[in-house]
Amino acid sequence: MKKILVTGGVGFIGTNLINRLVENGMDVFSYDDYSTGFKENENQLATYISGDIENIKQISVTGFDCCVHLAAQSRVQPSFENPDESLRVNVKGTLKVMEWAKKNKVRVIYAGSSSKHHDPSDSPYATTKSLGEEICKLYKKSYSVDVEIARFYNVYGPFEPLDEKYGNVIGIWRVKIKNGDPLPIVGDGEQRRDFTHVDDIVDGIIKIANSDIKHEDAWEIGSGINYSINELFEMFRKKFDVNSINIEDQPGNYRKTLRTNDDMLNKLNWSPSDQLNKYIQNLK
To answer: Which CATH number belongs to the domain containing residue 89 in this structure?
Structure first.
């Protein structure tokens, strides 16, 4: 793996991945529409191409060894507000990536979601990410595209979006702290999440990309440990001395996420770490 395209390259995970790939001496290109990513995330040693994921075939650069397909409408609650965009980006966009990969003989790593383990009809996000996986499997089986699925769990870490609409719970809470507001806990707060540091996600992607092992389903990139939202709040309270407020439960709010198997550990020698509390205590 020497020449890599990262779709969604100025987003949260994409930025961390590109920084690591550049450190490793790779020739890295980003393809992003900058709708939720930021120009200030760009790495001067990478090449950035602006464009919509449905237009990926317009990229004039050739000779890629691998494409890490991260571009997506990536949050549950916004997907209820705009299901058309979730369908367009997560399904049609993935179809376009697969067609481009088939034509150009490029290996693809698709960013799947742990929502696959729940009822896909729980949210437009879950439905469209599940359909994205099925498109990948279709092209793998019927068109011999070299594609591997990597299912991410609840990712946190540097460059996470500090945004009350598109952020994860940690990003949302960081905004609330900055504004002096109490931290909202959805429902009873006993829902549990497999919080996975973005460094471990990046490690996992690179291990998949460098391996010849094919997974019949998907590689699960989760820490294997989960915490309740109430436990997460206690970590924040100890650091920031903040209060909480309970808000009404939300659709698509799963009771539990937790890595389902150890294939990444046993077959690819991947070793995640539980950095959650340390990360929170080091926030400013």
So the answer is: 3.40.50.720
